[in-house]
Each structure stands twice: as structure tokens, then as C-alpha cells.
Amino acid sequence: IYEVKDNVAVVRINDPTSKVNTLSRHMQAEMVEVMNEIWGNAAVKSAVLISRKPGCFIAGADIKYHTHTHSLTSLSQEGQKIFDQVEKSPIPIVAAINGSCLGGGLEFAIACQYRIATKSKKTILGTPEVMLGLLPGAGGTQRLPKMVGLPAAFDMMLTGRNIRPDKAKKMGLVHQLVDPLGPGLKSPEERTIEYLEEVAVDFAKGLAGKKVTMEKKKGLVQKIQDFVMGLPPVRKQIYKTVHSKVMKQSKGLYPAPLKIIECVQTGIEKGNAAGYLTESQNFGKLAMTSESRALIGLYHGQVTCKKNHFGKPERDVKKLAVLGAGLMGAGIAQVTIDKGVATILKDTTEEGLARGHQQVYKGLNDKTKKKSLTTFERDGIMSLLSGQLDYRDFENADMVIEAVFEDLSIKHKVVKEVEAVIPPHCIFATNTSALPIKDIAAASKRPEKVIGMHYFSPVDKMQLLEIITTNKTSKDTTASAVAVGLKQGKVIIVVGDGPGFYTTRCLAPMLAEAVRALQEGVGPKKLDSLTTGFGFPVGAATLADEVGIDVAAHVAEDLGKAFGTRFGGGNVEVLKMMVQKGFKGRKSGKGCYVYGAKSKEKKVNSGAEDILKSFKLTAPPAVSADEDIQYRLVSRFVNEAVLCLQEGILPDPVQGDIGAVFGLGFPPCLGGPFRFVDSHGADKLVQKMKRFEEAYGNQFTPCQLLLDHAKDSSKRFHK
Amino acid sequence: MLTTNQSSYDLFCFILQRSKKEKCTFHFHNTTVNIFVAKSKKTLAKPGVKNIVLVDGVRTPFLQSGTIYADLMPHDLARAALQGLLNRTGLPKDAVDYIVYGTVIQEVKTSNVAREAALGAGFSDKTPAHTVTMACISSNQAMTTAVGLIAAGQCDAVVAGGVEFMSDVPIRHSRRMRKTMLSLNKAKTLGARLSLLGSIRLAHLAPELPAVAEFSTAETMGHSADRLAAAFGVSRLEQDEFALRSHTLAKKAQDSGLLSDVISFKVPGKDIVSKDNGIRPSTMEQMAKLKPAFIKPHGTVTAANSSFLTDGASAVLIMSEEKALAMGYKPKAYLRDFVYVSQDPKDQLLLGPTYATPKVLEKSGLTLNDIDVFEFHEAFAGQIMANLKAMESDWFAQTYMGRKTKVGAPPMEKFNSWGGSLSLGHPFAATGCRLVTTVAHRLQKEGGQYGLVAACAAGGQGHAMVIEAYPQ
């Protein structure tokens, strides 16, 4: 398992059962064994720790098999113990990092005496535990602040952000960087790992012979920072600031960040022993919280939704055409060329095309500013985009995605025009947020090639793609659409056809309820704070402005026709009137709020308030407490989601949760509507809904599946 | 080797058994006889295609930048090479149909340096001249442009060459400052001018320096060379050894007067210069002491195993064979097939020779064994060693070049045996002509029929040319 080269023990980590190395119990035991052997070998003067997997050092710990606070605390303590031995190693240990070095992997690396990382694009360092509702439980909360300073350590652990190699060197997380190599006598990946090992062995020898020092040279700024951090009142102020910042951002709904602050503070102020104890206990506690379960559930769901469950499509999409260079069309084009697929962006006017082209360019250029792309890579990617006003080259397209105006007759016209020029194998995808796909497909000569691809705005930022199949859509068409979506980096749910599909259908009743609340005199700001207080990242009023009041009005009217009074609540006329007055949301500068000069404080649009006043409703006091308003909004969302599952629009609760969280911003700490029903209790939810039903009627009638779950508490959406 | 007193019948049998077609040296009664065993092809002359010849080639001494040439301008050096060529060949000035010259770092005042130098060198003002640029293979491009002009029947006698002057490079104002200065020209009122002047900040005064770096990747060439050496597992020791070899061979060639392409140049205000000044054979111990120059602290490319910044110019006279003979010249060599290649400027920046060599050999219908003289441009010792390893690798040939087998590495006894860019110096755009002239001279001196020139260049480009000895 290890090899001695020139008195340097080289330990090569390679988990044969997985594509990545994880710190499983088995691997931990093996590591202890190997390390003890090395420490007992007099010929070994130093050691190198390296992974044999290209693109992965150690990607984290494995917590699957633990179900009790107690056992999780002891898992954390075991980790702490091993890394403590590594830290106190009698011989220097060099961690040679290529690929992801995350969570437990990073904690291992920072326990070593020296760290060398490759500058590969795949090399990332970080502590993503907080995103799973956990904390770095193997000494991370104790070692990181000492290594990179308090502010940087908090930033890493509280955001979970990935640190790129250059930044890691700058902040003192690694000592040396090694350039990735190109082709030589072996493949670049293989040779780069070999080279990293050679360099690491040299440094290990240098460290053993005291020719290389472990100390990092500290700049003046660093020295000043260290001095300032040495002052207890300064530290106290930092804890306070960080705490209040976390509270402000998380509304206190996420326990992990607060526990992380507690661990760091205990370690620094009360010493190592207390710090380690707090860390392991908090780790055990956090792992049992519903928030952590929800976040881990989302993580696994996301992994599932990043796979193609429909098999390999018969043909790869090598050329894609996008119709309509609006916000959506240009966004779709951007994420497509970004992955190396030639794309035609067609619009009907030169102005529209120029705007879309500029949007794509800006999206890519922003990446060059962040240095994740060079200007040459940007230019190379842009060269894949062909902006045009005609149907030239459509005979070579493998897939067309239309993103034209949401109007059935326009969509029908487009289907006919496009089908006249595309080859027989070409798939026709429609990006609509509410129109049923089968209605659009009605104009098609080949409905088996028609599919819905519902992107979310802004396309380059929003991860979700909702794919909608009709009963005529062929399996290969679906497989191809999923393959394209995955290439574009999307998390994908595949749902059945119907008005509003899944996502829009869940959002519409919630927005209707929001309009009702506004009519009842809850101001936009109050409404926003109630929804964000429940965990939604964006408040309901702001969300309406972002989506566009005109779009909301359109959808509310369409779905209202399809589903009847159940989708009622707020008066659609409110939205229509706002659109009439030009209050279309952020894009028109006015919606519920006024957008304009860069003032920090968002101002409520008094024009919208006047409209609301003219549609004023009296709030029934029995169901208008703050918490009631929150549950009125959420229960309509959740009930509609459960109904989608009951009706078979949704294939399973996992995709329902992923769609709601990634597409609509359902509170991640609740894990999605289905996990929320499980953790909150279907019976409790049904009780609340019954109360609302009395006041408002059928909009709050729980669906049958929800009632079933309420009746039998052993029924759960997630096992 | 065979020795004395073998019958000619034995000798004949011996020759027939040799599968490799190479030069064999036989010793008969203390006299050495070189017998050339049949090559794949006796000549590369093709029916219906004009023979194009190298009449002669010269260069100024190559000097480390910042030394004796420091106060000149690029066209001064170019002029010296052109005048030297006229003197050497005795060519009537109006016999030249066209002049093509290469340069890399341009002096903005003489952007068509070919024309400025030609006028000053006393060529007829009726002879047109243009400048080409293709990084380190600029003068190769100048020569092949000349070959093209002659082959197309448009010219009969063309002068090609290249110049590089690193003692002075254009250092610019920052973009912001330039913009302000250009707007200042257009400003009509005093107020507008003052407000523009007022907008200048201290940071705008920071100058922009040219770097020997790829524009597309922003990586310096030395950095790329270090990564290339690492990719092919070339050790520091191998690189130092190769650099030492280059300096040792260059010194020997200089001392034995083999570098006859060098002309003497009276530098205005200074002495006559007649020797390259960068040749400095050192010891392995001294070289081992140097720290890496680009990748610190664990890199392997150092100042001692890289080519240094050099000032210099070169020129060659290229003619159709008929014209050369008609004018009474005895040409030195035929310029035959050539290729240009290009590949990934990031990870394969300096692998031009590896890609170009098999391609040009195939074009000529030759094999590596047919080549008697190799002249490769030595940008870095690590780059040369990496190329040699790549050419020796079947895996590399199959995986990256789409070839069935490797082309093979040149035997070292035929390789750069009069030194190379590492020791003689490397004025970017002047090196190509030096390589071609050296091949011609080595073919004459060492005997042999075919020579091969290969070079890498910034931008991930490369070049190779086959040169055939002119019958003596």
C-alpha cells in the first residue's frame, strides 16, 4: 500500500470500490494501519500522501451508515484522533493534492505538515459540510482558523465555497502549486499525478533534511492581521458580526452555521480540548436535525437528477437551433455553446438578435472577469454561435428549441415553419412555462419528436430544467432532451403533460394566495418578510416582480381556466390592471416595487398600492395571523405538489422536491414539499388546511393522497 | 567498419547486405574513402518542377542583446547582413527581383524593415521588399516565400533573411494613457485639453512591456518549456548535459573556423565584430548551481539551458538553378520539400519539430535514415529533449499525431554538430536562415546528400525543410 522512495514513504490512496476516494470507516482503519507502519519504519524519514484517482484527492467523509447522535459523535472523535496523530507525526507528511479535496479530505490535508496542490481546473479545496447542514467534524473547525486566519476560515466554513488553487496558495491553505502537464509519454492526467508525486517526494526529502521550511512567509498585511486577531475584544467583535450576518441571511432556520461559529469560538477562547469536544458533539447533534436530513436529501436527489434514466439517445445533438433571442432563448444558447455544441440563435428582428447576442457575450465575458475563462476561450465559445434571421442551416440541426412568445397560435406557426426546413430526425422542443405540450404538438406532423423543455430564468444561473413529455413523445426524444440538458449542466426532472406541468402548477396557487394577502392589506414588504422568514430565498412579492407581472397574469388566467376556482384566491384583475399601468415587474422598472437608481432600500410602488386598495378584501381574523399567512401560502403549494404526484404528472417525490427547490426556491432547509410533509406531519398540515378551507373554500381542500398520509402516519414520501 | 585488404568483391557483398542506406567509411591503406550507399531516392528533383537553389547565406555575428549592437536599430543589423550577402556573392545589385525579410518584435518606425534595410544596403530602389512574421520561424517563412515566388515563375533571384534586435524593444504607454493622448489631439478647446490632462492618474503612466509570452494563453515560453520537459520526464541533468554539448560543439566549430556564414561587421562607433559572443562552455557543476528561471522552486529550465536574448540578422540568396548557373554561380544546395505545422499552443507549444519531421520526410519519400545532417532549432534544452523523446515514442505518434508508428529520433552524431541556438544565440527571426545555411555547409564539409531543418515557434507552430546537397 505504500512504497519507500529515497527514505520517503509514498502512500497512494485508491478506493477500488468507487470513482472517488471517501473517508469511509474502512479507509480510516486502513490509514491508521499504514501510518503506524510508516512511523515504525526507521528507514522512513518523511512521507507523501497522494491519490491515484485522477481528479480526486479525498472527496469527503462517508456518513451514510450512522443513525444516532452518539455514533456520529464518536465517528467525529475517531476522525479527530487520527488527524491529531497525523498533525503530531514525528516525520513530516506532505499532502499532494490533485482534484477535489473536500470535507474530510481537506481536514486530512490540513493536519499534514505540508501541502502541494496542482493548478488543475479540477483541483478544489473546501469545507462543504455546511451545505449538508453539518460542520467539519474532524478537527476542521479547530485547525482552519489557525491556518488561514479567523475571517477566511469563517468564510470557507460558513459558505462552503470551493477554493481554487491560486487562491488557496494566497490564503496560506497550501504551500506550493504544481502546474498540470500536457501530453507526454503518458496521458496528461496520468503524467500530472506522477509529476505531482515526484515534486512532493522532493519536498518531503527537503523537509526531512531541513532544507525546506514549513513556515510560510507572511506579508505585512498578514502580520498586521495576526496581531489584530490576537486582541480578544477584536475577536469578540468578529464573532458578533459573523453571528448577526448569519442570522440575517439564514433567518435562524439553519442550525449548522451557528454551531460552526460556536466550535471556532470555543476552540480559540477555551483551548483545544474544549474545542474538539464541542466540535464532535455539535457534529453529532447536527447530523440528526431535520435541516441536515433535508439538505442531504436534496444532495442525493440532485445526484439522481443528473443522470439520464432514458438510456443513450440514438444520435448526439451536435447542432442545436434556438428560436427567439429573448432572455430565455439567449440564455439557452449560452449554456449550449458553453459546452461546445454549435448553436444557431434565430430571431425575427435585427434588434432582438443583437440584444440576445450581447446577452450571451456578456454572460461569457463576466466569466473572464472572474477568471474562470480566458478571453481566448470566450472567443472560441462565441465562435460556435451563429446569430441569424433566416432558416439557413436548419437542415443540419439535430434539435430545435423554440423560445418565442407564449401564444398558442404563434407557437403553431413556428412548428409548421420549422418542420418545413428541419431533417426528419430533428427534435422539436418547446420552452413554455404553462401551455400544454400536446396543444402545441397538435400542429406537428411528427408529435413523437415534440417535447417540452421548460428552462428557468436566468438560464445560466438557474440549475433546473423541467422536461415535459406527452403520451406521444418517443422515449428516444426524451433521452435526447435529457442528454442535452445534462450537457448544459442542468438538474433535470421529467414530468407529464398538463396545464402548468409541475412547477408552474405549484407556483400559481401560491401566487394567487399572495395576491389575496396583498388585497387583504398585507403590504409587499410584510409579505416578503413572511415568505423569506419561512425559508424562501426570495419573497413572494419580489418573486412576482422577477417572474414578471404580465407572465403571472397570463399564467393565472390560463391555469384558472383549466383548474377552476381551486386556483382562485386573489383577483386576476389586480394583475391585469398592473400590467395595463405598465407595472410588469423588474423588467419594466415597476411592479410591486419601484426599480431604478441604485438605492439600497427598495421602495413600494404606490401605483400598485392604489390598485390593491381598489380591490381591497377584508381579512378573516381567524386565519390572518402571520403564521397563518405563511401556511396559507405554503400549504397551497404543497397540496398542489402532492396532487401532481397523485395524478401521475410527477413520477416520484424526489423529482418533486428537486423541482420545487431548484426551480421555485422552495425552502432548502425543508428539503422540498414532500420532505416537508414527512417532517412536519401530514396530519398537522391537513388540520391547518381544514381551518383555512372553512374561511376560504375549496382552494384549501387537501387532495386525497395528502389525506391518506394524514390518516396513516407510517406513510411517508421518503423512506 | 571494414579495414584493409578486403577484396572489392567482399566489399560489394557487404554493401548489398546493408539494409540501412547510410554513409559507410572504409579505410584502404590509410586513405579514407567515403562511399554513399544508395538512398531511398537518388535526388529529389521532380520532372517539370523547377530546381531551386541556395546560392549562399551569411549572417552577422549573433551577440547577446545589450552588448555591442546596443545602440543600433533593427534595420542597421539587417542592412549589414544584406550588404554582407552582396559582398560574399558579388551579386549585381539590380539582379535581385525581390526581397523578403522576417522579424518578430517590430520596431514601429520600420514596420516594413525589409524595405528600409534594402534601401540602405544599396539595393536598387526598383527592387520591392516585404516583411513577414511567424515567430521563431519568420526567416524560414521568408525563404519559403522566396521559393514560392521562383517556383511560380514570378522571380528568378530572391534575397530572403531575418533580423531580431532585442537590445531595444517597443515599450508602450498604457492603453488608458494612449487613449487620453489620442483624445488630446482631437480636443479643440483649452478647457477640453485641461480636463483630459486632469484625468491622467499616476497608474496610467505605468508602461506596458512586451513579454515572450503567448497572447492566447498568457503563458511565457520558458514556463511552457518547463512543463513540456516535465511531461516527457526530461530531467534537469539531461537538459544541462545537452546545453553543455551545444556550447562545446559551438566552441569547437568556432575555433576550427567552420562558422563561415558569419561576416565581419564594423559597428558604427565600435570595433569590428566577427564572432558570436554567447558561446560559453561551462561545467556541469556550475550549471547545476543555477536556480530555475520560470517554475519556482521545483522547475528544471534555467538560464543556462535556455537560449538567450540575442541581436542578429541573416540573409540568403535563393535562385532558380538555371539562373544561378547562367550567372556563373556554383550553388551550395537545393531547397526541396518543406512543411508548416501547428498544434495546441498551450500544452504542445514547442513540439513543432516532432510534427513537422515525419510530414516532410513523407512528402519527400525519404526516411530518417536518409538524412545525413540534422539542424534543429534549440529554443530550450528541455524542448529539444522533449521533441527527441516524442519522436521516439510510438504511443505519442499514435495518440496525438494519428500515425501508425514513431518517426524515430535523429542520431546524435548527426545532430546540431556545430552548436545551436542555445550556444550560438537565437535572434528570433534570423535563426531560420542560419539553420539552412549551416545544413548546406555541413553537407559540403561532412559529405552527405540530404539535410533536414526543423524548428518550433510561438503560437504552437512548426516548420521543417529538406535540403539536398548540390553535386560537388
From TrEMBL, chain A:
Molecular functions (GO terms): enoyl-CoA hydratase activity; long-chain (3S)-3-hydroxyacyl-CoA dehydrogenase (NAD+) activity; NAD+ binding; transferase activity
Site feature Important for long-chain enoyl-CoA hydratase activity, where: 107, 129
Domain called 3-hydroxyacyl-CoA dehydrogenase NAD binding: residue spans: 319-497
Active site, per annotation: 466
Superkingdom of this protein's organism: Eukaryota
Cellular location(s): Mitochondrion inner membrane
Keyword annotations from UniProtKB, A to Z: Acetylation, Fatty acid metabolism, Lipid metabolism, Lyase, Membrane, Methylation, Mitochondrion, Mitochondrion inner membrane, Multifunctional enzyme, NAD, Oxidoreductase, Phosphoprotein, Transferase, Transit peptide
InterPro entries, A to Z: 3-OHacyl-CoA_DH_NAD-bd (IPR006176), 3HC_DH_C (IPR006108), 6-PGluconate_DH-like_C_sf (IPR008927), ClpP/crotonase-like_dom_sf (IPR029045), Enoyl-CoA_hyd/isom_CS (IPR018376), Enoyl-CoA_hydra/iso (IPR001753), Fa_ox_alpha_mit (IPR012803), FA_oxidation_alpha_subunit (IPR050136)
Family: In the central section; belongs to the 3-hydroxyacyl-CoA dehydrogenase family. In the N-terminal section; belongs to the enoyl-CoA hydratase/isomerase family.
Name of the protein in question: Trifunctional enzyme subunit alpha, mitochondrial
Natural source organism: Cyprinus carpio (Common carp)
UniProtKB/TrEMBL annotation, chain B:
EC numbers on record: 2.3.1.155, 2.3.1.16
Major place of residence: endoplasmic reticulum
Localization per record: Endoplasmic reticulum; Mitochondrion inner membrane; Mitochondrion outer membrane
Keyword Coiled coil annotated: no
Molecular function terms from GO: acetyl-CoA C-acyltransferase activity; acetyl-CoA C-myristoyltransferase activity
Catalytic activity line of the entry: octanoyl-CoA + acetyl-CoA = 3-oxodecanoyl-CoA + CoA; dodecanoyl-CoA + acetyl-CoA = 3-oxotetradecanoyl-CoA + CoA; decanoyl-CoA + acetyl-CoA = 3-oxododecanoyl-CoA + CoA; butanoyl-CoA + acetyl-CoA = 3-oxohexanoyl-CoA + CoA
Domain Thiolase N-terminal positions: 52-322
Pfam short name (any one): Thiolase_N
Keyword Ribonucleoprotein applies: no
Thiolase C-terminal domain mapped to chain residues: 329-468
One annotated Gene Ontology cellular component of this protein: endoplasmic reticulum
Keyword annotations: Acetylation, Acyltransferase, Endoplasmic reticulum, Fatty acid metabolism, Lipid metabolism, Membrane, Mitochondrion, Mitochondrion inner membrane, Mitochondrion outer membrane, Transferase, Transit peptide
InterPro entries to which the protein is assigned, alphabetical: Thiolase, Thiolase-like, Thiolase_acyl_enz_int_AS, Thiolase_AS, Thiolase_C, Thiolase_CS, Thiolase_N
Pathway assigned in UniProt: Lipid metabolism; fatty acid beta-oxidation
EC primary class: transferase
Similarity comment: Belongs to the thiolase-like superfamily. Thiolase family.
Binding partners and assembly: Heterotetramer of 2 alpha/HADHA and 2 beta/HADHB subunits; forms the mitochondrial trifunctional enzyme. Also purified as higher order heterooligomers including a 4 alpha/HADHA and 4 beta/HADHB heterooligomer which physiological significance remains unclear. The mitochondrial trifunctional enzyme interacts with MTLN. Interacts with RSAD2/viperin.
The protein's role, per its UniProt record: Mitochondrial trifunctional enzyme catalyzes the last three of the four reactions of the mitochondrial beta-oxidation pathway. The mitochondrial beta-oxidation pathway is the major energy-producing process in tissues and is performed through four consecutive reactions breaking down fatty acids into acetyl-CoA. Among the enzymes involved in this pathway, the trifunctional enzyme exhibits specificity for long-chain fatty acids.
PANTHER family assigned to the protein according to its UniProt record, in alphabetical order: ACETYL-COA C-ACYLTRANSFERASE, TRIFUNCTIONAL ENZYME SUBUNIT BETA, MITOCHONDRIAL
Protein name: Trifunctional enzyme subunit beta, mitochondrial
Species name: Cyprinus carpio (Common carp)
